[in-house]
Specification:
This protein has 147 residues and is of the alpha/beta class. It has five helices and seven strands. Helix 2 crosses helix 3.
Length: 147
């Protein structure tokens, strides 16, 4: 994969985000960490109720289950929203001119929803994979080998 010099590479999931800048020469991926953010997200059963509430029917006799909220997913989505807000400030400050987004499918979709138009227009590539646990040298090699 060709990543332009000075492009930022955002590697995120619902609880971790690493933002890198490519300082490599043309055709080379050499990443430098700009910022790293981690959030411990507890499991849903540790956060709150696992079971959905009940709703009384119009007749007063029948009750039906409400759809349960995945509190773990809500926490992950909030984390991604905060990360995108920080990234937006970086773009406004002129620190970033191109972006590559790398995240698992759900997180990538959530990031797309949260991106303001001014940031979305800087996205030059997306990879729907979870690379958040990769060491920087392994990530560089992986990105170099993607065609």
């Amino acid at each position: 994969m060709i990543i332009n010099r000075q492009a930022w590479v955002v590697v995120a999931d619902g609880g971790r985000a690493n933002i890198y800048k490519n300082v490599g020469e043309i055709g080379e991926v050499k990443l430098v960490l700009v910022r790293s953010t981690n959030q411990h997200t507890e499991h849903t059963h540790e956060i709150g109720r696992d079971q959905p509430g009940r709703l009384s029917g119009n007749s007063g006799h029948a009750k039906s289950a409400l759809e349960s909220t995945d509190l773990h997913q809500v926490a992950e989505d909030k984390f991604l929203k905060a990360m995108i807000e920080h990234l937006s400030h970086d773009v406004q400050d002129g620190q970033c001119k191109e972006l590559v987004l790398i995240a698992p499918p759900h997180a990538l979709g959530e990031m797309r929803k949260q991106l303001p138009a001014s940031v979305a227009k800087l996205v030059v590539n997306e990879i729907s994979k979870d690379y958040t646990h990769m060491a920087i040298n392994e990530l560089q090699k992986t990105l170099m080998n993607i065609h």
